[in-house]
Specification:
This protein is mostly helical. It is built from 5 helices and no strands.
């Protein structure tokens, strides 16, 4: 091959490569974020069960079966973090981020993946329950603070909400 032909071939390859890159960039911009959504807060997925009382009840049932051991009664926190306080440290608290965390878990962390053991509908129902519980918790706290209700004691330790259900203790030497 002549040196002129090699240069010409290299130029053609570079030209095709540059056109491909430009085409990808232009295509990505046209499929990018809609103008009405800011770059700081991406659009969230709509939970198909949010606000549905029957779905929220089912979400509570599944939550109690699969989540309460680590995250406490009604999402108030235990071994795992509080899920009704509005603070999510790993992926964030959007519907999409919560769905991803529940279904995929936290790699290298204690939160396991539930995609193989929970249906997508049940994961959405858990999220609907958590949203409802967060709304109730914020309403109890009052609109001015958005924090948990103040403790009535003078203890320096913050009060935690009492569980909705405490199972009876049976057996043992003290029970007659």
């Amino acid at each position: 091959m002549k040196p002129v032909c090699v240069r010409s071939a290299i130029r053609r390859v570079l030209l095709v490569f540059l056109m491909s890159v430009v085409s990808c960039l232009v295509g990505a911009q046209s499929r990018g974020i809609p103008e009405s959504v800011s770059a700081e807060e991406p659009a969230d997925l709509k939970n198909p069960f949010e606000g549905d009382p029957a779905a929220i009840e089912r979400g509570l049932e599944v939550y109690n079966e699969r989540c309460s051991f680590c995250h406490g009664t009604r999402g108030h926190g235990a071994k795992g973090p509080c899920l009704t306080c509005g603070h999510f440290l790993y992926r964030g608290g959007s519907n999409a981020q919560l769905f991803a965390t529940i279904s995929g878990g936290i790699p290298g962390g204690q939160m396991g993946a539930f995609a193989s053991s929970l249906s997508s509908a049940d994961i959405w129902k858990i999220i609907a329950f958590l949203r409802e519980e967060t709304t109730k918790r914020n309403a109890e706290a009052g609109p001015e603070t958005g924090a948990a209700p103040a403790a009535s004691s003078t203890s320096p330790v913050p009060a935690r909400a009492a569980p909705a259900y405490v199972p009876p203790i049976s057996g043992g030497a003290d029970n007659d």
